[in-house]
């Protein structure tokens, strides 16, 4: 099992890397510290290894997102945080890449952490610059169900951001 004594792990880092992190990617061109396919479980990382895990614009490419979340939980230290960001289902980016296996709503992450001992730290919908001044960001995040049911195609979102903390005790 590969491990460094770093506190951050950047999954699917590509060329847009988180500073000071251990980098894991399937593409050798990205020069990752760990060359690995995120669709292959378990990851070559010890349990409870990292204080922070970043997975930006990667979950929408994966075959089994439930197994992915369980794997993040396994390798995250108690008290550690996982940072996820993915295109919102209303974003044109969600549909623009044939490698995207599914589309994410605000509520999808709630289903993905079901049964895992996570506490939600941040959960929001972000918007393209053209919509930021309209106040839709405030309304969408104050009333996410109403936004996704009625307003989402009038005011398409950009991303869903989700940050969760692994609780210190097991349930």
CATH class: Alpha Beta
Radius of gyration: 16 Å
Mean pLDDT: 92
Helix content: 10-25%
Secondary structure: number of strands = 7
Distance between the termini: 27 Å
Form type: globular
Write out the strand line-up for the largest beta sheet, numbering strands in chain order: 3-2-1-4-5-7-6
| Low-pLDDT stretches | none
Assigned CATH superfamily: Vaccinia Virus protein VP39
Secondary-structure element order, N to C: EEEEHEHHEHHHE
Count of DSSP H/I helices: 6
CATH architecture: 3-Layer(aba) Sandwich
Whole-number count of domains: 1
- Portion of residues in beta strands equals 25-35%
From the helix content, strand content and strand pairing, which structural class follows?
A: alpha/beta
CATH topology label = Rossmann fold
The major pleated sheet works out as:
7 strands, mixed
Keywords, separated by commas or semicolons:
single chain, 171 residues, alpha/beta, Rossmann fold, seven-stranded mixed beta sheet, 6 helices, 7 strands, 29% strand
Report on the architecture of this protein.
The protein has 171 residues and is an alpha/beta fold. It has one domain (8-166): Rossmann fold, CATH 3.40.50.150. 23% of the residues lie in helices and 29% in strands. It is built from six helices and seven strands. Helix 5 crosses helix 6. The longest helix has 11 residues, at 65-75.
Outline of this structure?
This protein has one domain (8-166): 3-Layer(aba) Sandwich (Rossmann fold), CATH 3.40.50.150. It is built from 6 helices and 7 strands, in the order ββββαβααβαααβ. The chain has helices at 65-75, 92-96, 108-112, 129-132, 136-142, 144-151, and strands at 8-11, 21-25, 34-35, 50-56, 76-87, 118-127, 157-166.
């Amino acid at each position: 099992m590969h491990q460094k004594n770093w506190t951050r792990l950047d999954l699917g880092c590509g060329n847009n890397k988180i500073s000071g992190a251990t980098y894991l990617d399937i593409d050798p061109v990205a020069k990752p510290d760990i060359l690995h396919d995120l669709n292959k479980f378990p990851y070559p990382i010890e349990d409870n290894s990292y204080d922070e895990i970043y997975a930006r614009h990667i979950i929408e490419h994966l075959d089994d997102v439930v197994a992915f979340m369980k794997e993040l939980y396994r390798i995250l230290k108690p008290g550690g945080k996982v940072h996820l960001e993915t295109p919102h289902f209303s974003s044109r980016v969600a549909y623009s890449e044939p490698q995207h296996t599914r589309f994410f709503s605000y509520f999808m992450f709630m289903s993905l952490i079901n049964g895992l001992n996570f506490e939600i730290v941040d959960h929001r919908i972000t918007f393209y610059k053209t919509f930021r001044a309209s106040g839709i960001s405030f309304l969408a995040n104050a009333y996410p169900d109403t936004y996704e049911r009625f307003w989402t195609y009038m005011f398409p979102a950009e991303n869903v951001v989700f940050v969760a903390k692994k609780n210190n005790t097991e349930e």
